[in-house]
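Our platform keeps sequence and structure together, in a single record for each protein. Such a record has a labelled line for the sequence and another for the backbone structure tokens. This encoding replaces a full spatial description with a residue-level series of whole-number codes. Below, we set out a record of this kind in full and without editing:
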Amino acid sequence: MLTQIHVRTPVWESPSLSAALGKPVLLKMEALQPVGSFKARAMGGACAAAQAAGATQVVCASGGNAGYAVAYAARRLGMQATIVVPLAASPRNQELIRGEGATLVLHGHSFDDAHVHAQALADETGASLVHPFDDPRVWAGNATLVQELVEDGVKPGMIVLSVGGGGLLCGVVDGLRAAGWNDVPVLAVETDGAASFAAALQAGHAVQIGPLTSIAVTLGARRVTQHAVEVAALHPVQSWLVSDRAAVEACLRFADEHRILVEPACGAALAPVYAAAEPVRAAAGPVLVVVCGGAGVTREQLAKWEREVPQSASG
């Protein structure tokens, strides 16, 4: 049996979001994971699987949450971890990764640059490469979120989640189908400046989009995993876009109402519920939002996002 890194998270009913939407809104509180995000499931599961297969070292490229989660999981499992981050990675994320005892390597100007270097390091050292989202071990880790809902007897009328590279979406849909919950639709939310999943659906396959412009940097994958396109063809998945302003305002409102700080990548999923967008209004039962969290948010950073995002945008 694999060592479990993530913790079981609670489901909260949100009075404020329920009032905004006019129907029950449930929150799967992944922000309460030890590393502050759902990545504890994804990367924890991947690292545990790598160890079970005989690996003693893991390498991961990341701009933040995934790298921190790999570093945390590796320390818990007694493995060595090397995390490659772009030069622009935030000082806070670098500090968190180093604090877990991982080797931190700064390389390149984007996740793509960092990932190429991580692959080279894995080839040189024989370490197991853990991809932040394009890895079946990651999808299996994220599927445990749905397993907990099944065990708790919580079957929502819709699940709302954010999409970056698509690892969370893949795991949730895989989990829903394993549970026989093929009638539970998923609203997959991105910000306008990081809409690689929407582009993939339009093309019918994963495509690389242009430069990312969204403030939600942890959604910053220019190309989603092809598996995200495949699961969207098997399951009722709808793409939805929100503005950076809507995502940041959702973070601020959520902090006031629920006393929890989350990143704009998470605010993106909250935004259509606060706005009572048509797909969530049409849900046949309670709407469950995956509050995916984020390790890189502080009060100061949240205030900075509020100042920097244009007020004129709408979600």
About this structure: The two ends are 44 Å apart (CA to CA). DSSP finds 13 helices and ten strands in the chain. The chain has two domains: 11-37+135-308, 39-129. Strands lie at 11-13, 25-28, 57-61, 80-85, 103-106, 128-129, 158-162, 186-191, 237-242, 287-290.
